Fold this sequence. Notes:
The chain has 9 helices and 19 strands. It has helices at 4-12, 24-32, 97-117, 141-150, 203-215, 264-278, 299-312, 327-330, 356-374, and strands at 38-44, 47-54, 60-66, 87-88, 91-93, 124-130, 157-160, 172-174, 176-177, 179-188, 192-193, 230-238, 245-246, 249-258, 282-286, 293-294, 317-319, 336-339, 353-355.
Amino acid sequence: MPSTLDFARSLIRQPSVTPDDAGCQNLIAEALQPAGFIAEFLSYGEVCNVWLRRGHVDPLLVFAGHTDVVPTGPIEQWHHPPFEAVVEDGVLHGRGAADMKGSLAAMVTACQQFVVEHPNHKGSIALLVTSDEEGPADNGTVKVVKELCDREEMIDWCVVGEPTSRQQTGDVIKNGRRGSLGGKLTVQGIQGHVAYPHLADNPIHRAADIVTRLTTQTWDEGNEFFPPTTFQVSNLNSGTGASNVIPAQAEIDFNFRYSPESSVESIKERVNALCQQVWTDYEIDWSRPNLPFQTQPGELVDAVSAAIFAVTGLTTELSTEGGTSDGRFIAPTGAQVIELGPVNRTIHQVNEQVSAADLDTLAIIYQKILENLLL
């Protein structure tokens, strides 16, 4: 049985940039099959998913995660090669160390040890692992959950291994997330010479006015569980390549992270109203929304909080801040969902890293969650 650190290193050495799993799920399956987990590989398009389950009775506790990682960025800026999984001074370096191959390794070793110590535990344990979390997420967890629901295989509790901790493993867990709604705003103008602006209509100026109105809005105040809704521009594209030409079109990519105090419909209505105050020749291509979710204090939150306190002495903080996660696909089934993982300080950055000792701590916490719920 490999250590959590050793298994995390074996996963990091696989260059599994979205949507390529690069063999990680095979490693996970091979590690868990001796403990009685049955592997079911579910592929959709380029995306690999695996459902590993031990037991056939309720209740069902699931660990969920992803093997895919974001691109490395400039290799020359890394202190250690991103896929060599170097350990130096007690720190594991590599792409995916924190997000989230470290969590996957901790899940595997926690399950292995739990089964060794409690082979006759009640209920069932499963892992749901995808290679499409950092990407579009069209063929990953959402498809697996649909397959499970179609055959009435329902999840009671789910622990997602996203890196939630701020300063110390277990100091923050996510019991929900804001929704996400993105779109592309295309503003039409009239192309012309910059020296004759009266013969043209600059869509960049129109777009700038619209963005100003959108960024200065108070969308809502949030509530006691969720921070307020926010609006951000992620990309602006326009121009012909010539410095003396007013372009005919400007495109703006934007995203809302919204609390339950706002709805998708209300956001769309307000955006359109603000755009029309400036200009009518525009269109918005809205992306598929990701709905907010929240798990109220109860069995799972209590079990996770108690496990963290028993292992670390920390009283964990419940939070719904941050981006989206695959928990958004699992919570609508009625499952209780929380997210718990290592310190997130370096995720998606050059020189991503995690403390090796923190991975051991995380594995012990995961095992304690199993004990709290299945003994």
